[in-house]
Amino acid sequence: MSIKMVDFVVDKRSIRRFRKFVPVGPDNECWPWTGHTSKKGYGLFLVINSNGTWSNINAHRFALAISSGSVEQGKLACHTCDNPPCCNPKHLFWGTSSDNLTDCSKKGRMLKGSDHHFSKRPELTQLAADRRKISRGQDHGCAFLTQSQVDSIRAEYAAGARQMVLAKKYGVWQPTISDIVRRVTWTGVPSGPRNA
Fold it and tell me: What is the pLDDT of residue 143?
């Protein structure tokens, strides 16, 4: 017997494997996941997706799925105990992201004002701002072309060169050339008149 869930399959074999990592105790106590965990302390359990491939899911999500018999689509498995490795279904409920944030706020776990970690460590504010900066043009980690090459591509195209010829010359696909000359990509790179 197997129950097909939204994104993973639950069968007797996976339930047996899951229970090896959860020491069951009294209902009022947490049942901590003893297997692999994420950086935030949540248990990770390897399951078979509905398409037949393997992937990790949060162990507490699997625990709630097997205890409730279903997965509520678009919902999170939320903890009432605020203990990330806990897999006790009595400590879990299906909820939205908003429900989870409301629960967090009611319990006073949301850091605000002078308690927020950014206020205690101002250097984190600059780090967060730096992470939000988007690299453009040749500074982007995946850029294959340089700004001077893009300028040349636009100039050659404006002079009548065909996109397929430019693509072969610069070692890129024709749609890449099309995006460059139409300024869909490399928009921050100034060069000759727009001609597309």
Answer: 78
Domain that holds residue 147: 137-181
| CB-facing half-sphere around the CA of 7: CA atoms within 13 A | 13
User: Are residues 89 and 18 both part of a single domain?
Assistant: yes
pTM over 0.85: no
* For range 156-185, the mean pLDDT: 94
Cβ(124)–Cβ(118) under 8 Å? yes
Residue 109 CA to residue 116 CA, distance in Å, equals: 11
Beta bridge partners of 44: 58
Look at strands 54-58 and 44-48 and give their pairing: antiparallel
- The number of beta carbons lying within 10 Å of the beta carbon of residue 195 is 12
**152 lies in the same domain as 90:** no
Q: Of 104-113, 121-130, 152-161, where does mean pLDDT reach its minimum? A: 121-130
3 DSSP β-pair partners: 10
- Indicate the burial class of 7 (C-beta count within 10 angstroms; 0-12, 13-18, 19 or more): middle
The CA distance from 80 to 77, in Å, is 10
Alpha helices (runs of H) in 32-173, residue ranges in sequence order: 59-68, 97-106, 117-120, 123-132, 147-158, 163-170
pLDDT of residue 1: 34
